[in-house]
Design a protein that fits this description.
By secondary structure, the chain is mainly β. It has one domain: YVTN repeat-like/Quinoprotein amine dehydrogenase (Methylamine Dehydrogenase, Chain H). The chain has no helices and 37 strands. Strand 12 and strand 13 form a beta hairpin. The relative contact order is 0.16.
Length: about 450
Amino acid sequence: MGRSASGGMAIAAIASAAIACGGRTTVHVEPTSPDAASVTGDSGPEVDSGHDSAMPDAAADASYEQDVASEDVQWPAIPGDPWRQYRHDARRTGLSTVTVASHPIFAWSADLECKSYDVAPVVDATGNVYVAACGVVWSLDNKGAVRWREPEVLGDAGWAPYLAIALTSDDRLVAVDVIESSVKVLEPTGKLVHATNLPNEGNLGALLLSADNSVYITSTGPALDSVRLHAINEAGALLWSADLAQSAQIRGLSADNEGNVYVAIAQWAGAEWTTLVKKVSADGKGAWTQTWLGLGFEPVVAASGRAWLALHTTAKEAPNLVLLDLASEQALAKIENVGLVAPLPALGQDQILYVGTPWGLSAWAPNGDKLWMVGSLESKAMDLWTGPVLSADGTVIVSDTIGFLHGIRDKKIAWSYQRDWQDEPDPNGMLGDQVAIGPDGTIYAGSYSGLLYALR
């Protein structure tokens, strides 16, 4: 059931009849040949205008029929690295140990039946992909067939935003029921394992999963506009709750290898947003708090005990990038005059930081020195490159806010793919849909048009 979008882009939607588990659907994989993106060198500072001329060849026509996976099917694990939570891991590095195709092409797309700015897929060890959108959780196999969907089991309003979905080490799905104010764990089949109720806690939001499958979840707390952090063990028992701030908004969670959690909290300072970063130990005790001008997300934590914080601000003399020593609380580097940055950077195995800007993607050395920038497709104020992720071979895959996915390799744009974006940019100007890499190297990304894309 394919359809053609403008610009020659081919997409395919899963038949609505596939929603019922155990049904049969035909999934069409249509050819696509993304046009090479033109790169301009005058849309921002220090732009490398090089573009790899090798672009994907069109795929051969193909279609196939298959049974939609039923709940008793057990697929073998795929050798590789599952993408089990937001930004891949608790440190929020966006780093996969899987290598993607050198020039990936369109494989399939699935219709999520809603428009959402905040689709963030997670992928288990067998290649099944899970995504929450507009109050519905979808489970699809790695060919795009619907395994199951849950629009009502967890409340009519469904699930919390994209920060609140993750997979345990044994591939159980952890997500939030915003109606019942609970954290629920589901088997890969969709069957409920257990639920942890958090009554009178207001809105539940950002979720983080630790190495021992403990869940950390934020809430607005029982008091108006308060922010709290809760710890839940693998069995579903609530371990502790900690008060964090008043009159604030949660921006995200990250953790280090010692089990400390870092909470990013935004507060309005009258003329500008400020971002509080709070360190909370594994037993729920607060360690320190830092306040920075600008709107940021959770720090990206390096294995070395350092962390990067990206801040979206145009204020004079306010840093856009901060390198923190997490033990001493010292700022090792404060980088100003970067311009607007997307506060969702990625961190490579070599500790190089990749940051999106309105002009493309920039790379930064561990000491804070700027290494390079690759130019953007067009000079548009809303074209902010955001949410970069990393393949094992060093390819950086980044989404922009006008609907493109780009693959950056050797400081050049190796490939670009245009999704069906419907010319509706992110209202926040900084959040594109998140990209995930499956254990077989498949690239997953959403779009505001309501489609989940798979490229391989």
